[in-house]
Each structure stands twice: as structure tokens, then as C-alpha cells.
Amino acid sequence: MKEDTQELVIVMTRGIDSELSSVAFTLANGAITAGMQVRVFLTSAAVNVVRRKGHDMTHVPPLDPLARLIADFQGRGGTIWACPPCVAARGYEADDLIDGVGIRGASAMFEQVRAGAATLSF
């Protein structure tokens, strides 16, 4: 990791059943506030957080509801990528996901890491 990195990749495996999804997006928004460019890469059950209406079910007080955290993240320039096999394994297609989510493979995430992005995983 470069010491002066301005980029962050957050890899998420936990979905709407876990408070970690809310924690991850809270930290992602904090990183944007700190001036970082942030990408979230969703794998496994985490793809459920971007399924239409899926994120509406998660609220972990005192954090904002997950739907609001994700909307804020995207509205502030954050990027969300969903793992193609993980999306397909759940029977989802692009239209099943909220607007703005890209279905991108791990190579897109690794490209950011190789370029020096810091990483967090949840």
C-alpha cells in the first residue's frame, strides 16, 4: 500500500443480515469525506445489499439506514461493483440491482489494488 494513497477499495462479503454492511458503508462515506476515491466490491451475500429493495430491510441504530448510506455513497461519487458469479448465483441480473451498480469482475478491483489503493474488508 502506498503511504499517500487517496484511493480505497472495500471488499464486502456480508449482506443485509449483518450490521457489517452498514459499518462498511459508514466507513466508505467517511473515506469520501476524508477526500479519498472509494470503490466497494461486493462478493457472496454482500450482493444482496444492492438488490432492489433488499437494502431497505437493514437499519442498525445509531447508524443511518443502509439504503440511505448507499444512496449517500453513490451520490458523493462512490463506485459499487458486484461480483458477476455472485450475482448470477443468486439469479440476479443487472435490472435486479439498484441504479449505478456495475457488475465487474475481480480484475477491476485488483487493478485498483495494484495501483496502490488501500483495502478494507468486511
Please tell me about this protein's structure:
With 122 residues, this protein is of the alpha/beta class. It has one domain: Hypothetical Protein Ychn, Chain: A (3-Layer(aba) Sandwich), CATH 3.40.1260. Helices cover 33% and strands 19% of the residues. The protein has helices at residues 19-33, 66-75, 84-89, 106-114; strands at residues 7-12, 37-42, 79-82, 101-103, 118-121. The chain has a 5-stranded parallel sheet, sandwiched between helices. Helix 1 (19-33) links the parallel strand 1 and strand 2. Helix 1 runs parallel beside helix 2. The protein is globular. It starts with 6 loop residues before the first strand and ends with a strand. The mean pLDDT is 93.
